[in-house]
Amino acid sequence: MISALWSAVFLVQLSCLQGAPIFGGSFNFSLDVQGYLHNFGYLKSNGSAPIIPSVNIFSEAIKTFQQFAHLPVTGQADEGTVKKMAAPRCGVSDAAVNGLQRFVLGGSKWPDKSLTWAVSSYTKQLNESVVDAQLTKAWKVWSDNTNLTFTKAAKGQTPNFDIFFAKGDHKDGFAFDGKGKVLAHAFYPRNGRIHFDEDEIWAPSGRPERDGTNLFQVAAHEFGHALGLDHSKVETALMAPFYRYSAKDDILTKDDISGIQTIYPLGKTADIRLAESSLD
């Protein structure tokens, strides 16, 4: 990733060339905007190396992010945009940015209806039984709306989904960034890896947001990716990329249900019909 300092200097140089500021307003810039746009799919990369964009391409990438994040579309990295980029979120790329659909499919699925999970490395912040209970609850969100079942793997059994908590570089090519920003990430079928950032403060469901990040809610989001869903453009959807605390257990919107039932149909067309006008 290009360093935040280099990126800031580069972007200021671009704004001078353009004759108008890329950064709008007067605020303390402390986020690598260009790196963020590369990391989450708004700017192209050559393998792991970001491609330096032109002023117009950079501005269009900001506009696309602003549209996806339901912000005023200015084409500038203004204060509201930078604050949104710094908000806690999922580490999976926003692959839906160039699509028109209300939910986006990851392009793969699990062939079996009975799937297993296990935690290979628990967080040190909560009892293992508490973690298991929250993960079981998160799997139930999806099993209640599909013909899939999810059970904890028996000791010695190889699970479909391997869940673990880790800090920083955990050898999957997508290092965590410390407390805040990226909370967790998951891989699409049939990879099965689901990772949570141990630098976050994790709380069981039912506790206020100020006490920590809701494990149940984040887990349910990542499980959606592990089942084949990409990020949703619907701001209220569970599969939207940004963390939004909810005290509810019933956290799927019609958009989430439409997406998962398109991948794993219940067998009746009526079960997956959801007109856009009826979506949350």
TrEMBL record:
Zn(2+) 2 binds at C90, H221, H225, H231, M239. Belongs to the peptidase M10A family. InterPro entries: M10A_MMP, MetalloPept_cat_dom_sf, Pept_M10_metallopeptidase, Pept_M10A, Peptidase_Metallo, Peptidoglycan-bd-like, PGBD-like_sf. Pfam families: Peptidase_M10 (PF00413), PG_binding_1 (PF01471). Ca(2+) 3 binds at D177, G178, D197, E200. CDD domains: ZnMc_MMP (cd04278). Ca(2+) 1 binds at E200. Residues 1-19 form the signal peptide. GO terms for cellular component: extracellular matrix. SMART domains: ZnMc. Transmembrane segments: none annotated. Residues 106-266 form the Peptidase metallopeptidase domain. GO terms for molecular function: metalloendopeptidase activity; zinc ion binding. One of its GO terms (biological process) is extracellular matrix organization. It comes from Hypsibius exemplaris. This is Matrix metalloproteinase-28. Its cofactor is Zn(2+); Ca(2+). The active site is at E222. Binds 2 Zn(2+) ions per subunit. Can bind about 5 Ca(2+) ions per subunit. Keywords: Calcium, Hydrolase, Metal-binding, Metalloprotease, Protease, Signal, Zinc. Zn(2+) 1 binds at H170, D172, H185, H195.
